[in-house]
Every structure is written in C-alpha cells, then in structure tokens.
Amino acid sequence: MAETVYFETVAVGDDIPVLAKGPMTTAHIIRWSAAMENWHKIHYDWRYATEHDGLPDVLINGSWKQHVLAQVLVDWVGETGWLWKMNFQYRGMNIPGDTLTAWGRVTGRSQRGRYGVIELDIGLKDQNGKEGSPGTAVIVLPLRDGPPVPYPFHPAALH
Amino acid sequence: MAVDELVDHITPDVRAVIGARSDWLEAPHPVEASEVRRFFQALMDPNPRFWDTEHAAGTRYGAVVAPPGFPVHAFRRPADDSTDSLAAAGDPDFDGVSRAMRVGLPKLPIALSGILNGGYEYEFFSYPKVGDRIQCRSAYLDIYQKQGKAGPMVLVVIEDEYRTADGRPLLKSLNTMIMR
User: Fold this and answer.
1) Given CB atoms, is B169 within the 8 Å cutoff of chain A?
2) Is residue B91, in this structure, part of any structural domain at all?
C-alpha cells in the first residue's frame, strides 16, 4: 500500500508520478467500447471513421481517457487523500499506436480547516509530447497531525 | 459570410428546454462485480480496491468499489428494452449512437448531425460499491451557439448528479457536448 501523502510534503511545482498506457491498439479500444456498451462506429469501424467521418483512423475513446486522468491522481494520493474535483477538455484525437501518459503538476496549495487542498494542472500527452486533454484538479490531503479526510467526502468539512 | 453563419439553431423550442431537469432515474441494474471487472480491466487499472474483498474490507470503503467515474456509464440498455439499439446499424450513415443526450431529458430539436464530447468538470463524493443502485438526475444548464471554423456549433451544457438509492452522493458532473 502506498505511503500516505501528507499536505506538508507537497510543494508548488512538484510533478506527481506519471502513468503511461500503450501503445494502444484497436483491441484495447474495442475492449473498452464493449465494457461500456458504446457502439459508436468511429471507435471500431475503420471505413466509417475515415471515409464517412473523415478521421485519420479509428479513435481512442474520450470516455476511456478521462478515467486515466482520474487514475493518475487517485494512484498518487491512495486511500488517504481524496480526488475532489477534476476538469478537462477533449482537444486532441488519439489513435491506435499512441502511448498516452497522464501527468499532474502542483500549482497551488492551501490549508482549509483541518485539511490541505492541492491544486494541479493535469493532462494526457501522446508519445510526441502533444497534449490532448488539458485540465485541472483539486485534491484534499490530510495534515500530519490532522484527522483523516472524511469519506464519503463532503466539501463542508473544509470550513 | 457563409449562409450557415446566419442559421440560428437556438430556436424558441430549444430555448424552452434550457433549465429542464429530469427526475431521479435509477440505472437498470445494481452495480455488478463482473461489470466492474470488465471496466477496470479495460482501463488497465488493477487496483485491489476494485476486486480484492479482503483488502477492500480494510479500506475506508469497507467493500470493493468501482472506479470514480463509473456512475457515468451505469445507465445501460435495460433488459426489457425490446428496441435494438443497433437496428439501424446496416445504414451506412448510422454512427452507432443514440441522439438522446440523457435518458431523462428531451431530445434537442437541432438539425446538426455531428456530435462531439467537449469535456467534463467532475466533483467526487464517494465511490459506488458492488450492489449499489445508482440514480442520476440531469439538467440542460445551458444551450448556446458559437461560430466554428467549419460552421455553426451548438454547445450543450448538461449537469448530472449521481447518488445511490439510499441517498449517498457519488459525483456531480458538468458535461459540454458540441453539436455541429
């Protein structure tokens, strides 16, 4: 089990451990589409994707990419911190052959009540370093001498 | 100026559904262990909190849970839905997805065929456990038009609130869908 990340140990500018997935293939894409029961042809019908919709290839699901962003954050803070907020835009398309690396960098930190609140920039870069899903996140961490972050989480705990 | 730029898709009929909010609707079945397994295996996220009952019993969740964003995908085709969602799959123009934005919200009377997911803002409160019955309430928070490079785009901002049937908040999301 990962060690507890305490608020005091986190500094603005810190990079959290990255999380890489890939190279992604059509098999990975259809495995996700089937698990989701999402039958959008742009994810598995090459002719439809390229000829009908004019895409460069079938696409890696945006619905899959969002969970990779959540995972890199939850993996970092384990069972003692809380991924409170996360937002991102789908700006780039990703295709088979891409390896995607989720990353996060601390941009702000503040103590609120008896807890620490960490702000981060986040994203999902391809193997060429191109950012396709930029966003931000807010994590709640325990203080060294503080109580555990409540679960279920309630924002009122920060007051 | 292209003719397209003059088209105002935000008609009175569209304006009338801005603010529309659905009732709380329940997913067709409770969260299933194998459904969660397919989910985390496809995500390639094998954390024991998703499958190891002994490990999970010692965590703050008290039992195995699904990944944070799982509720967003919980509204699957009900067993008693006799309308095959792939009935039109032989049509070369059929893209495989329903035009309905959300189960409980009215379809939008907008004559744009392309649809893209613009992104999400999430706020997480708890994770669903196997056996939880997930409920969702959705609203069209805003619908507005912007001029894109290839013509007009309509941006649809949808708020979704998820909770368990026994009232435990799961997550809240703001999703921007782009029609063009």
Assistant:
1) yes
2) no
